[in-house]
Amino acid sequence: VVVTRNYGETAKEKSDELLFHMLLAILSVSILIWLTLGLREAGIVAIAIPVTLAFTLIVFYLYGYTVNRVTLFALIFSIGILVDDAIVVVENIVRHYRLPDNRGRPLVDIAIEAVDEVGNPTILATFTVIAAILPMAFVRGLMGPYMRPIPVGASAAMIFSLLVAFIVTPWASLKLLHKDQEAVEIKESRFTGFYRQVMALLIKQPLWRYGFLSVVLLLLVGSVSLFAARLVIVKMLPFDNKNEFQVIIDTAEGKTLEETAAVAREIGDYLQTVPEVTNYQTYIGTASPYNFNGLVRHYFLRRGTNVGDIQVNLVPKSERDTQSHEVAKLVRPKIKEIADRYGARVKIAEVPPGPPVLQTLVAEVYGPTLRQQKELARQVMEVFEQTEGVVDVDWYVEDDQLKYSFVVDREKAALNAVSTEQIAKTLRIAVEGLGVGLLHSSKESEDVEIFVRLKPNNRSSIDNLKAIKLQASDGKMVALGELVKVEESIQDKSIYHKNLMSVIYVTADIAGREESPVYTIAKLSEKIAALQIPEGYSVEQYTAKQPFSSDKLALKWDGEWHITYEVFRDLGLAFAAVLVLIYVLTVGWFQSFKTPVVIMAAIPFSLVGILPAHWLMGAFFTATSMIGFIAGAGIVVRNSIILVDFVELRLKQG
C-alpha cells in the first residue's frame, strides 16, 4: 500500500501525525471499554480492531486507494463504530453468563443463546449505518474523489466488524471467560436507579413527559437558529494551518522590472518585521517554483515585467500559536496599503485546504459582445470593492497598452537598396537580441553563447530605434527612420472562453467575520441585481450552471461557492436517500410504520449537540461536519434499533 505525498508537508510528517491519531483513537476506545465492561471483556472486544482494520486495508488495496489523509480519516472515523457490534455481543454474553438461571449450563450454549438474542437487531443496525454512509460515495463534482474512500472504507469496516462480532468475538469469549466463575446476582448501580426514577416520571406523568419534549424541541429550534444568527458559519472546508503563503503582485501593464521590484522590495521589508515570518523569496518578472496554488490558479504561467511573486515561509506551526490564515489576515491591510501607493494589485494566496478553485470568490461575466462584458465586469468589480469583507479584488482583463508597429515603406527601401528582411532582422537584434555564435574559453567548462543586443538606454525609445543605421547594398548608411513609418495602436488583450463561451473573470477573496462565500454572495447578489445597465434589463445570475445563451448579459458565481453548492446539494440528496433506506429497513424488521418514526426521531435531535459544539469551538459547519451529521444519523438510529428491539423482547418475556 503506497503512502502518497501531501503538498506543503512531507509524506512522512503527515502520515506519522495521522497514524498517531489512529493509535490514540484505538487507545481511547480500549480505555473506555475497559472502564465500562472490565479488563477481560475489553480484551475480547479489542481483538476486533486489528482484524477489522486489516480486512479494510485489503479493500483499499483492491480498490487501488493509497494510504493518505482521506483513507486514514476513514479508518479513524470507523474505529468507534466497528467495535460497537463486538461490544453488544460481548456484553450480552457476559450478562447471560452472570444470570443465576444459567448456573451450571455449558458456556457454549450460553454464548449461542446470547448471540442469537441480539443477532438480528445487530445485523439490522449495522446495515442501517452502512445505508447512512454509503450514499456519500455518489457525491459528484470535484469533491467526489475526495469523499469516496470514506464511505467505501467505513462500509467495508462495518461489514467486517459484523463478521468478527459473530465469529471471532464468541470464540474469544469462550477462551477468556472462566468456566469456574460462579454466576452472581446483578446489582443495580446508583446511576441505573437514578435513570429508573427519571424515566418512571417521564413515562407515567404526562406533565413531565410533555414538559421534557417541549424543552428538547426548544433546544432544537435554538440550535438551528444558530445558522440564522450566523453564530455558526457554513463553509466548504475549514482553513488549514500551513507553513507558507504567497503574495501575488500585478503592476499596470507596461511597468518596468525596476518598478515592479520596488513594490516587492517594500512589501518584503515589511514582511521582515512580522514575527511569524522566518524568510521569503522574491521573484520579479517570473513565477515562483511550482506549487499547488501555481498549478490550480495558473500562477506558474505568469511572465512579464509587471508581475511579481513573493514566497513567504512561516515559523513551523509547532513553534507558533497563530495559524497561517490569521497571519495572512494580519499582513493583508499593510501589504495592500503599500501596493496602492504604487498603483499595483496584490493577492494573498494561501494554500487551499481542499479541492482546487481559481479563487475563493469568482464571478463569470457573459454577454453578447466583449465591450458589454467588460463594462459589466467593471461594475461588478466596483461592487466587490465597496462590499465589506471582500478583499484582493482583481479581474482577468489587461490594461490598455500602446503597441508600436514599424511599417516598412517598400518604395523607399527599394530606392535605398535595403530589403525588408534586413530591416526586420536589425530591429530584432536591437530589441530582442540574437545569439550569433559560441565563445570557446579554456576558463569555462562549457561553451558560452555570444548574445548581441543594444544597451537598454539605446533601445528604450522609438527615437533611438529610428536612429539605427542600416548598410545598403552599395555601402551607403541609411537611418531606419527614413525607411519605416511608426503606427500606434492598442495591444491585443487575452480573451478567455469557458465551454466555448466568451467569459471575463472577476475574482476576490473573503476576510472578516464571515469568511464564507455563502453569505458574501448573498449580499453581492442583491447589489448586482440592482445594477443599472444600458441594455435596460437586470443582470441574470446563475449559481450551478452557465447561461444557455450569451445573447443577454449574465453572471455565474463560481469558485469555492460552486463546490460548496455541489457538495451540500449532493450530501442533502444523500441524506434524503439515507432517511428512505433507514425507514425501509426498519419497517421491514419491526413490521410497523410507526416504530421507525420513533426510532428516527433521534436524528434531528443530534443537532442539539452538533451545532452548539460548533459555536463553542468557533468552528465552521463544513462538508466534513455534514459527513459527521449523516454518519451520526446512522449511529443514533443503530442505538435506537438495538434498544427498541430489546425493549420489545423483554416485554414479550413479561
Quick synopsis:
By secondary structure, the chain is of the alpha+beta class. It has helices at 11-37, 39-46, 48-63, 69-98, 107-133, 144-147, 149-176, 190-204, 206-228, 257-271, 292-297, 324-342, 370-386, 410-415, 420-431, 456-459, 462-466, 517-529, 560-590, 595-600, 602-605, 607-617, 623-652, and strands at residues 244-250, 277-284, 307-314, 345-350, 361-366, 390-395, 402-408, 434-439, 448-452, 469-471, 477-479, 484-490, 496-498, 501-510, 540-542, 554-559.
Question: If you had to describe this structure to a student in words, what would you say it looks like?
Answer:
This protein is α+β, with helices and mostly antiparallel strands and 654 residues long. The chain contains 23 helices and 16 strands. The chain has helices at residues 11-37, 39-46, 48-63, 69-98, 107-133, 144-147, 149-176, 190-204, 206-228, 257-271, 292-297, 324-342, 370-386, 410-415, 420-431, 456-459, 462-466, 517-529, 560-590, 595-600, 602-605, 607-617, 623-652; strands at 244-250, 277-284, 307-314, 345-350, 361-366, 390-395, 402-408, 434-439, 448-452, 469-471, 477-479, 484-490, 496-498, 501-510, 540-542, 554-559. Strands 5, 6, 13, 14, 15 and 16 form a six-stranded mixed β-sheet that branches. A four-stranded antiparallel β-sheet has the order 2-3-1-4, with helices on one face. A two-stranded antiparallel ribbon has the order 7-12. β10 (469-471) and β11 form a beta hairpin. Residues 1-9 have low confidence and may be disordered.
